[in-house]
Sequence to fold (204 residues):
Amino acid sequence: MVPHGIVVEAIGAGRSGLDLLALQALAGQMRSGQFGVDPGGSEQAMTIARQVADMAQGLAALADRLVGQGSAVPAETIEVAEGDCVAFLESQFRIRRLRARHLPALSLGEPAWDILLDLAVAQYWRRETSVTSLCIAADVPSTTALRWINSMTREGLIVRRPCQRDGRRSFLAIAPETYQAMLAMAADSLRTEQRVRARYQRAA
Fold:
């Protein structure tokens, strides 16, 4: 019979350091009869040896899965800081400007999205945004940008705030609920990016 303690020790090592070599060596010792069994005359000993070898392979597969899953920590549980989310949103805004630079013949305008990206970044940095500035951020003619601004204001996505220095003027800001939704979207996007990046790194 194989000493039970040796099997437990090998499995325990597999759990902490995944000592697969120990399990493989154990299988080899059993086949060679070092535990007092006849390798040529005991079918039971050979069966146990095969089971130990299969156990080593199973642990190896488990280790690969754990490494691939980032130590089995669900990506959804990873906290993403507000600053990281806003940095992602600003990068999206800047990438859209690069897209227009590199693909000038391709019209992919989305003024509403550009407006939300610009106002989300302004909210984080506590910047006041004028109508003129927001029209520029929308990257469309002023008349088109104003139509979008008025529509988004009616829908409650953005709000008007009075200027503290001049009561005749007002500034535009992202609504609190919209800002939180943008942060949640950015956090999910960053987690997705991490999962995709990890998959390509494992494939490299």
